[in-house]
Amino acid sequence: MKIAVIGGGPGGYVAAIRAAQLGADVTLVEKEHLGGTCLNIGCIPTKCLLHSAELVEDIKNQGADIGVKVTGVEIDFPQVIAHKNAISQKLTGGVAALLKMNKVKKIDGEARFVGPRKMKITKPDGSTEDLAADKIILATGSVNATPPIPGLKENPNCIDSTGALSLEALPKSMVVIGAGVIGLELACAYAAFGTKITVVEALDHMLPMLDGDLTKIGVAHMKKMGMDFHLECPVQSVEPSPVGAKVVCKDKSGQTISFEAEKVLVAVGRRANTASLNLEAGGIKNDRGRIIVTDRMETNVSGVYAIGDCVLGKAQLAHTASAMGEVAAENIMGMDVLYDESTNPTCVYIEPEAASVGLTEEQCKAKGIEYKVGKFPMSANGKALIINGGEGLVKIIAGKKYGEVLGMHIIGPRATDLIAEGALAIRLEATLDELISTIHSHPTVTETMREAALNAEKRAIHTKN
Ligand code: NAD
Q1: Which of 7, 173, 312, 419 lies at a CB distance of 3.0 to 4.6 Å from 196, suitable for a disulfide?
Q2: Which residue's CA is minimally distant from atom 14 of ligand 1?
Q3: What is the pLDDT of residues 280-321, one digit of tens each?
């Protein structure tokens, strides 16, 4: 079986390796870098900046209290960027080695449809080659969306997340358009580095994917870091300014309000990166470029699959893409697997970290599911108290009758690692009782998960029930 994978991000390279493991003859076509957005200009680079940010915040906020006095803490911004580049390079090199180890062939070039199930590759030297494949997996990811805001495109100080990850100097001020994940994660990093951050958001709330209790704690922390938030404040235009750029908005009361800053980060969402695929020639159904797939990850054209950020209606997350990639590869190789989103966690690397899996209370109500809730504050957990002073919360949602875990929502230290327990609980249809009868090690932040389960049963030991 000859399989061609178009795109070498966390969707594509994982699909390629899985297909090769199952005995396929796999070719991966990539027009830019292996590792895609995630390793080069997305998740990993952002987390590098955030790690530098966390260290400097910890020293500033906690150092003296915990007996670590450091004078003259400063950000060497070019070194922050250099470190980020080194980590990206290490990881993308690792992907190349893994592909080689699995005997996946790699072609540098851009693939586009010239007919149903027929693709042509244009190589960097301009030459073209027909793609020989029995099955195709499209994994071309997404790109930053550029909103049609007058004056934005023309202003070189308006940057997107890619620009914000490769600045040469630390800006003194930054307006962030969009209080979504990208905007707030980068805002946290730059605020910790000392940049004055102003966030403007069109809606009346931020981070809609998180439980409201979590967002409240996150926003309070970000305000403490010195960030200003303006909700219900859609951007109308961007004007030139001697400082850098002037962002003109309409506030809640309909008044014009403007914010000037050295840089403006535009973070209003991402769109499918499928323009160059010529989907129409391939007969591939899509909605404004986002490819329509079944739960087997197959498009309307049999034998052509699509995974990751370029598909319609699923989370645009690296681990989602990888999971879909394995599903596509396995189905092509004769297995019968469905992509199941019920254990897909959302992780938001704001300060403190937040993560969520399964249903929220709002979703339970909307679905008419009877549920119970258990909560446990990080302030009552020894390890969390040591790490960040005990800021945060765990909230568990379980079925009222049987106590099966329906959702887990965490903000606090290590939240993005802890969430794996919630995802596994959902996968195993574990109940509160099973979480409770599992001994959790002490002292760890994992104890908060068990205590939240205990609280749902009105038997928490370390908090009021
Ligand atoms: P988003 O959709 O999460 O947020 C964009 C925000 O911009 C929205 O709140 C929207 O209301 C606002 N907005 C749009 N137009 C505006 C305007 N004119 N004025 C003011 N506000 C405006 O998009 P994002 O943050 O760009 O992220 C894109 C994708 O990348 C998401 O799907 C996200 O899941 C993914 N991502 C995930 C992670 C992670 O998992 N940690 C990190 C980064 C990105």
Answers
A1: 173
A2: 268
A3: 999 999 999 999 999 999 999 999 999 999 999 999 999 999
- Mean pLDDT over 328-346 rounds to 97
pTM assigned to the model? 0.96
User: Among 33, 83, 319, 442, which one carries the catalytic annotation?
Assistant: 442
CA distance 188 to 165: 13
- Residues 50, 55, 59, 63: is their CA dihedral positive or negative? positive
* pLDDT value at 208 more than 90: no
Q: How far is the CA of 58 from the centre of ligand 1 (A)?
A: 27
Give the atom of ligand 1 at the shortest distance from the alpha carbon of 200.
Answer: 20
Confidence of residue 38 (pLDDT cuts 50, 70, 90): very high
